[in-house]
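ingest -> fold -> write
write: protein_1
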Amino acid sequence: MGKLDGKIALITGGARGQGAAEAQLFVGEGATVVLTDVLDEAGERTAGELGADYLHHDVSSEDDWARVVAEIGERHGRIDVLVNNAGILHASSLVKYQTADWDRVIAINQTGVFFGMRAVAPGMIANGGGSIVNISSVAGLEGVYGSMAYSASKWAVRGMTKVASQELAQHGVRVNSVHPGIINTDMTSDFPKERMLRAVPMGREAEATEVGQVVLFLASDDSSYCTGQEFVVDGGMHS
């Protein structure tokens, strides 16, 4: 018996990396998974390999959220789990940061999470419960040099998670955030990892599946008494 048997899960940014790893774990535990992304070729390929559904989805678009949630409702009847995984990183110093880059990071990483929680909450309330897992970062717990917009967005995800958890708890909907450190994914491929790993007591980066296991725990009934909390997966970097 799988930990997610019978559950319908939506994972944004699921075409590759951490989202794809989460999807693989979810499918393995019995969930019906819908992956969404703007990387259609990779998304279709990942979904095909896993036996999941794929939908094109720009998380910064209200219209896309309405369409995706409605389509999943038509196909599967409901959404039990939302993983707000989609995100981007733009590195630049404060004085060189361009407004257009700031706006794009905030639109995807912060406003996209807001749109997602708002879009699925009514259905989860009507169904008597659900789990929302918002992917933040260690950058949502402390300052990270050269990541002004990314850090701002990830701190915001942390705060929005806490507010949503308080508002939705009475309806049986749990909302938690996950805070990865240095993870081996495409998004972090250009990081100066050798220097950064000096700050990690465990001395290595994590594989995406190691983050996925925590997301799986929060999506499942194993975490039935957990809401409004921060789950850090960083090898001891933030302690």
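write: protein_2
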Amino acid sequence: MRSGKITVHDFVIMPNHVHILMTVPGEMSIEKAMQLIKGSFSFRANKELGFRGEIWQRGYSDVGILDDKSFQQHCEYIENNPVKAGLANRPDEYPFGTAYLKKQKHAGAKAQGLLESSIGTTEVVP
């Protein structure tokens, strides 16, 4: 984790709520992290989309991650939330979450690897 930066491990944006699995630096409170996330999103929605009005409800709920097993359970919960809600058949079909982005990144890496091999380079893309 870069010093002073929030690391987002997993997220999904649902029609009426958001899940974010993140690591907050030791010197930052969760309250401050949420203020930054909500404020940045609202600013961009206003600037880029012309959206004026309230986007976020007051407050949030948080759950502490105690170990690797808990971390993995929360990742699975977040990724499967759109499936559970009937918005997709598989997590990577829902375009507003990390499962979809990971699939797109992986597909792009494969496509880039094929392109590079077709022009004679020996670089391997993982």
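write: annotation protein_2
The domain at 7-96 is CATH 3.30.70.1290 (Alpha-Beta Plaits).
The longest strand covers residues 7-13.
pipeline exit 0
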